[in-house]
Amino acid sequence: MLRRIILTVALLASLPLSAKDLNMGSWQIVPLPEQVKEVEAAPFKITSKTTIYYAAGDEKQKKDAEFLASHIKEVTGIEVKTTDKQEKKQIRLALNAGDPKSEAYSLVVNKAGITISATSHVGIFYGIQSVMKALPITNKMNVKNAKDVKSVKNVKNVKSVSLPAVEVKDAPRFAYRAFMIDVGRHYFSVPYLKKLIDVFAMHNINYFHWHLTEDQGWRLEIKKYPMLTQIGSKRKETILPTNKNEFDGVPVSGYYTQDEAREIVKYAADRYITVIPEVDMPGHMLAALASYPELGCTGGPYEVATRFGVFEDVLCAGKAKTLQFAKDVMNEIMDIFPSTYIHIGGDECPKNRWKVCENCQKKIEELGIQELPKHSKEEQLQTWFMGEIEKQIRNRGRKMMGWDEILEGTPSKDITVCGWTSVNASIRSAREGHPTIVAPISNFYFSNPRINKIEGIPSIQRVYDLEPCSDKLTPAEQKNIIGAEGCIWTEWVKDAEKMEWELLPRLAALSEVQWTAKDKRNLENFFPRMLHMQDLYRLYGLNYKADIEDAVKKHLEEKK
Asked: Both 376 and 413 in a single domain?
């Protein structure tokens, strides 16, 4: 309760005190739209008499209209209704003829109303998100415990809010805008994942990369292999951050049923977010090996990992049963997740076991694999193994995705590569002709302990200033960069507070990198818009990295 009161008071301190200012929204939002043209006209006033129009019979529009109405009430305290009847002074959703997959939208705001137009439902949704973020925060319930009487009085007396007259035309720079959450190291509940999906939607994220398996835990029900969750979802304890061979003695467990996974998929889809599942293989598989020891090179015994790092025991690429296991798992994954992309990891797979494994060496000989100047026999064995999985994925009309270590072999150019090890990894991938996602540990890993020690403006600047399309690439090679992705690995993230602290407000910076055109991005311009996002974080009870906010406020004050 005390934390809530403190946050509430902080919110009030950041708001203007006059009723006039308090009631007026702003189009200085995150991410910055492509074009915002102020219009010399009266603003549009939202009151309890305002309605939101959706086309009769369009269930998606109806749901989106209700979504907007709910948000308006949450942010302003004003309850508006939805209708399929056109009226005067109305918020209107308009689906026009054109590309049904386009994410572009336009906004027209004047005294007569707000019109959100697009050629797709997703475009309308992003227009709705812009309206939601432009609203002033006036909900009296948010300040009921505050001590600032004058501010409370203003908030309680709000009967209407206004949005300035404007014309907005907007579309994303990148088609792929993702964030990854690792639930293998620590399990997070279905309701909490839904909360994170709402946060992603607010930042115009359109892909939730769900890292489901790790050495430390297998988190998804696979019906053909029940021991994966009966054994693989549990570990007896976790090493302490000291890394001095000290453990906490606290068991960790948890997994998602297939029905729960489908629930997450639907919840995300309702917010125009696609869930990309990841089952990491052939490395990072100790939880699977503990469940089915015969899948490894040595036969075990294996244990669900209680430490973090890279382990020598991986799937045996030379056994037919191991390949069949991988295919079976992928088939069930694809039954659950309709995503075009299926991520199979491919990172941090030591080859020491394979070098001495009779089955692996026999398979290398059988395939006629020869040592190459840049690629060992074992690296090429991994390429073959993952290629067999890729065939399975492609046969079902999907596309395989993997981390940049898959470049150490000779992978198909159809495979999408997530460049995590460095910025140069993305450059290499794009040069080699792969669809490439920029996700370097140096800039977009929000859970990196070393980087998290950086405070204030440098902490957010390292995210905001990274340009995904490196000038080291030719224009043709830059076209292979399809987007950017942030990541949180949960070795040391056990709860929501730490998760959100790592996520926010750096997600705001990342969303602008993903959405806004390069020539429109400006860190100084971003700062005041970021502060409004943090007002929203407080409204929703989200934790965030406060040192960034403090530094930005000080910086802006000094510039006055």
From this structure: yes
